[in-house]
Amino acid sequence: xxxxxxxxxxxxxxxxxxxxxxxxxxxxxxxxxxxxxxxxxxxxxxxxxxxxxxxxxxxxxxxxxxxxxxxxxxxxxxxxxxxxxxxxxxxxxxxxxxxxxxxxxxxxxxxxxxxxxxxxxxxxxxxxxxxxxxx
Length: 135
What we know:
It is built from three helices and eight strands; from the N terminus they run E-H-E-E-E-E-H-E-H-E-E. The radius of gyration is 15 Å and the shape is globular. Helix 1 (18-29) runs antiparallel to helix 2. By secondary structure, the chain is an alpha/beta fold. Helices cover 20% and strands 32% of the residues. It comes from Streptomyces purpureus. InterPro entries: Glyas_Bleomycin-R_OHBP_Dase, VOC_core, YycE-like_C, YycE-like_N. This is Glyoxalase/bleomycin resistance protein/dioxygenase.
């Protein structure tokens, strides 16, 4: 299959603590664990956790390597378009599972969504808009 709109996307990033990350993304947001590897001392064999919705064409890969520290910025966003108001109970669940609600430096995201920072400092934006009307 040539590269295009149906190509699967993997978003990979480092994590300090895969257990804390799993609580946030799985128990907080509701993603499923798609794959997990314990890791070894061998080069290239890191502990990792893949999360996503089974029917999605993307997934999140979190890798723990003690020599790599996450370095998120305020613009490292994963945006989920809900096409409805952000449920208060979802935000509360994300916070109960290690997230911190934060204001975005970009007023667009404050107007159209809720931003929650994960335990590694990366930001999840829950957007009230529909993807097709998000420009």
